[in-house]
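Re-run requested by the PI after the first attempt was lost when the workstation crashed. Everything re-entered from the original request form. Ligand of interest: iron/sulfur cluster.
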Amino acid sequence: AGVPAAAPALPPARHLFSDPAEVEALRRNLLAWYDRCKRDLPWRALAAAEPDADRRGYAVWVSEIMLQQTQVATVIDYYTRWMQKWPTLQALAQASLEEVNELWAGLGYYSRGKRLQEAARKVVSQLAGRMPRRAEELQKLLPGVGRYTAGAIASISYGQATGVVDGNVIRVLCRLRCIGADSSSPAVIDRLWDMANVLVDRSRPGDFNQALMELGATVCVPKSPLCGECPVKQHCQAWRRKLFGKAHPVPDVEDCGVGDCPLCPPATEPWDSSLGVTNFPRKAAKKPPRAMRTATCVLERRGCHGAPEYLLVQRPSSGLLAGLWEFPSVPLAQDLQEEKEREELADYLQVWMGQPVAAKGLQFIGEVIHIFSHIHQTYVVYSLHLDGDVTLDPALSPSRWVTEDEFHASAVSTAMKKV
Ligand code: SF4
């Protein structure tokens, strides 16, 4: 007690953008490249042409939520259908969760659609349909909108000069400034946000942020970046280091990389010249995904027109794949014998159908593997043909019989389509 805490030292200059002339030049070069090379994307067209500010914010918001964890090429079609079906916040607020899940089916990370719709309802009912205009308010008032999404909506739709940091930006900034400390650590992430806020162009913030992300998506890509074509290579410390074999000499470079610089790679894993610029960024090793086994049964009956029908049941409204439909499925303990797995499934089906199900009657079809973000899921697939009808217990989860076409139009996950 009584000893004043030392002020945190500023990181060495090679990790910062401290020269205003360089910042200006970087903005200019990046924006000129973006104007020449940007991809034509439906949400960009809407953000540029939509005169109504609330609709504009909504259009950008939907695109940002869909783009989280999902490739641009996959999102385009979903986005177009979404905006046709629900062009405004008001339209989305009136949709049912079932409709949202049906449109979202196949896009993954299903809670995103649900949260988006809940947030739209909040804007309509509590904010009189008016989108907050500033990043701080967007993040505070809209459920499911984090710091990144708030910054993207505020800068792209409303011209607020605020930076954004996503996976692409992390990669570009770590390379521009040779940041080799764990890029998922809060200390490094905080620095990157500071940097993004310093860099963002004051008159074209939305374009600048999109340009930085676009650079990461198309030029400064993870594995083989196209440094020769890069519009900001003259500002890139990693590129210089690769070319000249050592860090660009800056006044205090001697302080960096030898002591305990918080942004340099750990001293035990210095620059690997075979990796070049892809020395950056670095991440602490990820936890391996959790392995899970689930037995699932495709129950089939003859429908009234003779076509086969399949039983779908609805998952709980929270947790993984919330509210989606699936074939009746039961999680299994690891390392069960096949016979045991079959019995577990038969017992589970019996509860559903209120009548005995013979484990031997279940026909083994095969296994389907599906990787969710953090789960390595194996579905052990069985089928069972029913002769008569069954009465399902209405006290259990909602369930329904569907034809194959109806199955494909339902809110089912990609994993169930594989099954
Ligand atoms: Fe990325 Fe290479 Fe450009 Fe540096 S020069 S920002 S590493 S593409």
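Saved to the shared folder this time. The domain at 290-409 is CATH 3.90.79.10 (Nucleoside Triphosphate Pyrophosphohydrolase).
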